[in-house]
Specification:
128 residues; single chain; mainly alpha
């Protein structure tokens, strides 16, 4: 059997060597998703302490609505419906690690809830 493998061009392997395919073990997209999730967890904590901050994303949606007076994008309608739900439902969604939640976080209306310093700490924690 060894002779046939050798004749076919196979070589015996005495040990496995792990190779790095890139300089970073995670793609920049995955890091951005994790950073976004971390930001939304902090957003949820802040709004839990001060429910008036929920006015920020609602105001952002209304401001964005003016940009599309005839037909808003699907994500806008989705966020509008979600922001009409009870706060625990909203908090659960924005902190969920699912694909759907990650998709929604890409067009988040929660900009402005975190301070510049809070955002900077999260970016620093993720090496960005």
């Amino acid at each position: 059997m060894r002779e046939r493998r050798k004749a076919a061009g196979y070589r015996s392997v005495s040990k496995w060597v792990a190779r790095r395919l890139s300089a970073t073990p995670y793609s920049s997209h995955r890091i951005a998703e994790a950073r976004s999730l971390a930001m939304h967890v902090l957003v949820a904590k802040k709004i839990e302490r001060d429910p008036t901050l929920l006015d920020v994303p609602r105001h952002n949606l209304e401001r964005w609505r003016a940009q599309w007076p005839h037909k808003p994008p699907p994500w806008w309608r989705e966020w509008r419906a979600l922001l009409q739900r009870p706060w625990p439902d909203i908090a659960a969604l924005i902190t969920e690690p699912s694909e759907n939640a990650a998709r929604l976080r890409q067009s988040t209306p929660f900009a402005g809830v975190l301070t510049d310093a809070e955002r900077a700490r999260i970016y620093e924690a993720f090496g960005s």
